[in-house]
Each structure stands twice: as structure tokens, then as C-alpha cells.
Specification:
Length: 205
């Protein structure tokens, strides 16, 4: 007679951990950003900002693709169109207008010039600099993409009051300035982190 099979004892399921619920600290201490001491609304607003800014970046990429350009090249092209005036626009002015680094603008101006979309001339007021203008081909490109820009912007800012937009503009001016201070703080934190892990020597050695 065959030996009876031994029953394998089943491991009991893990019991849910009981005890005090973990309460993470607030991610900000500014009173105006807290609601009854809670930062939930603040964090959810940040998540929406990240989502919205990410979408704006994708819109910029789409505009560029319409003209076979990168997003940065598109912004420099459009920025030139609206800032060139009758004499052209300097790299510094274009940099301030588009919020791109001057070195980045210089690089993209060179690439757009090679594509025949921009033209560079010497700046009579600053012999070391140049003035940038659209070529006829660049003007045609701006006109070609304008209908898409209008459709997107009309839909994007539908039901947004002028006062609301002005409030957002003021907020972003302050927010952008604060972000520069934050970048400096993060760089300082990274240096301190590197010092802690590399001084006096790596303990694993």
C-alpha cells in the first residue's frame, strides 16, 4: 500500500502591521502654503504644475516638428520674429525674451542660419555682437506655423480671465527668480553630500 503523502504546512499569510499610522512631515513650512497644518493641497498643486509644464514642453516640440526644427530652435525662431524690429535683435535680448541661456541661443542661431531661416549682421552698437533677423524663408516658416499656434493657444487659454492670466504672470516672475536660488541651494547640498561620502576616505576601501 502506497505511503500516504505528507501534507505540507502552509505558511500563514502575513498579518497587516498594526500600530501607529506613519505620518510623514510636511514638505513645506510656509504658513500660507499649509491648510490646517497640512500640505496636501500644496503638493497636489505642484503635481498639476509638473503635468502642465510637461505638456507645454511637448507642445513646443510639436511646433518645432511642424517646421522640422527642435523645440529650442523653434523658440529662437519665433522669438526673433517678435523681437527683431527693423534692425534685428541681439543675442542677449533674445536670450532674455526666450528665457534660454545666451550660449544656447548662440548655438541655435548658428543652426538656424545654416538652415537659411536666420541672418546675422554685425551690431553697430557692439562690434563684438551680432544682430539676428529672419530671412524670407524664416518669415515663411513663421507664417506657416502660425495657424497651429493660434489653435493651440486659443484652446489652451479658453475660459481663462485676463485677471487670472495676470496673476499667473506675476506668480511665475517670482517663482522663476526663487528657482534660481533653489538651484544654488541644491548645488550646495550636492557638494556637502559628496564631502560626507568621500571624506576622509571611503570606508569600503
Amino acid at each position: 500500500m502506497a505511503a500516504a503523502k505528507k501534507k505540507t504546512a502552509k505558511t500563514p499569510p502575513a498579518r497587516p502591521r498594526r500600530g501607529k499610522t506613519f505620518m510623514p512631515p510636511a514638505t513645506i513650512t510656509l504658513p500660507q502654503m499649509l491648510l490646517s497644518g497640512n500640505d496636501l493641497a500644496f503638493r497636489e498643486t505642484l503635481y498639476m504644475m509638473f503635468q502642465a509644464f510637461g505638456r507645454l514642453s511637448s507642445f513646443r516640440e510639436s511646433f518645432g516638428k511642424e517646421l522640422s526644427l527642435t523645440a529650442s530652435q523653434f523658440i529662437v525662431l519665433i522669438g526673433t520674429a517678435y523681437r527683431q524690429g527693423s534692425d534685428g535683435v541681439s543675442i542677449r535680448t533674445l536670450s532674455d525674451h526666450t528665457q534660454l541661456a545666451a550660449t544656447h541661443v548662440t548655438t541655435e542661431v548658428g543652426r538656424l542660419t545654416a538652415k537659411g531661416l536666420l541672418n546675422k549682421t554685425a551690431n553697430a552698437r557692439d562690434r563684438r555682437g551680432v544682430l539676428v533677423r529672419l530671412t524670407p524663408k524664416g518669415e515663411a516658416a513663421v507664417l506657416a506655423v502660425n495657424p497651429l499656434l493660434r489653435r493651440v493657444n486659443d484652446r489652451l487659454f479658453q475660459n481663462v480671465a485676463r485677471e487670472d492670466f495676470a496673476t499667473v504672470s506675476r506668480f511665475l516672475s517670482n517663482f522663476a527668480l526663487n528657482s534660481e536660488y533653489v538651484l544654488a541651494e541644491l548645488r550646495r547640498s550636492e557638494r556637502e553630500h559628496a564631502t560626507r561620502h568621500n571624506w576622509p576616505y571611503n570606508k569600503s576601501n
